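#struct-queue
[09:14] JT: dropping the first one here, sequence first, then the structure tokens:
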Amino acid sequence: MSARRRRSRAAGGAPNAGKSSLLRALTKATPEVGDFPFTTREPVPGMMAYEDIAFQLIDTPPITADFMFAWMVEICRNADAALLVADLSTDDALEHIEVVRARLAEKKVELVPHAPRQSDAPVRLVRTLLVGNKADAPGALERLDVLAELLGKDFRRIAVSALTGQGLPELRALLFDFLEVIRVYSKMPGKKPDMDVPFVLPRGSTVMDLARKVHRDIAERLKFARLWGEGAFEGQSVKRDHALHDGDVVELHE
């Protein structure tokens, strides 16, 4: 990934949960969509735009009690987060979700509501957002409430419809918040800031973290920075360990 990287998310779920339809609705990708299981047999990526950045979404084949592609484990392990897609049109949604979680847990991948960014533990914890698709179906919201209660209130959830577009703008914003990232804009001394393509950093990142993303040599020679943004006056001089916020404009000085 480049310095201005995009976060990767894997979308997993049971057969016919509507993962491919969601990918079509959220990105420009064109996965095959069908009413029969395993229409998707290979990972299909797509870029989901949110304001001035984009996230990579990966549509994966379904996971069932009888079958799971072996390479699914590595996709989930390497994702920044997962979307656990539930079919809200059926009362079997909870059973399907539990099958997905159990099959991955067998391979030491656990879908959890919260997880550290980095860990050396043998079990890979993947922070997961519960996405109830087919929210336009009768009884859909009640089924999502039941799912949330049984899975645990710590799981963040949202109801959407790939068919009608219900909840999709809210899902884009929720993904940005869920990934806990910020956008920082660079500025050359004496020039206007580059507001077109921000650097995307984890929350809590500092001026030095930004400098490392720009270039290793700049980080090594960095003396201070000037900041336009939250908690600072226009062009305030800040140290290398100054914590950045979403929307900050930073001018690095060597």
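[09:21] JT: and here's the second one, same format:
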Amino acid sequence: MNITPRRVLVVVTRRIGDVLLATPVLRSLKNAWPQAQINALVFQSSLAALSGNRDVDNVVAIPERPALAKHVALLIKIFRRYDLAVSLVAGDRPTFYAYAAGRRRVGLLLPTRKEAWKRRWLHEWAPYDMAEQHTVLTHLSVLKLLNVAPIAELAAPMQAGDEPVAANALASLNGRRFVVLHPYPKFNYKTWSTTGWVALAQWLLGKGVGVVFTGSGDATEVE
């Protein structure tokens, strides 16, 4: 993209983990165009993933299953308000949101004949790889269409007062590299075995890498 956009909308209407994995795209865009206003369109349930994110100027939120009135209100709010819209989700709605919002539109789409009709909504698209490539790399692949250098750095959500709490919790690592393991996802079908997590943690410790577990205060998780 030769002209620097003044307003950019990144559409990532997915759950909280997917929004977190989209933060490298937000960082890359802000780094490439520091004067541009970078906005994100997410589900209301995923807002926390962008808390305190300095690469995002504004967040537009919508329910996962919006009523018709809310849908119309969103479309009125975003219609052609952006120089560029980037969709990081291959679904019908997010692709249409990008079409409605941006004077120029790029995004990720499934490279199948069945999905080919969506290509008319975008000026350029990159294939959405669901099997062979990590989600972060798939997200970053869309930046090639914009001639933007990818920065593969996740931006963790941060609220006021979180930083000293995190620093205190990680003090025992003494500056060592560490890996965060989150063994309890929201949905049971995503849950791995306890023996698998234990084996992974022991392998990491054997490599001299610190291990940090995250989760809720639920008694079962803590145990």
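[09:30] RK: nice, looked through the second one.
[09:31] RK: DSSP finds eight helices and eight strands in the chain.
[09:31] JT: good to know. Strands lie at 7-11, 37-43, 58-62, 82-87, 102-109, 124-127, 178-181, 210-213.
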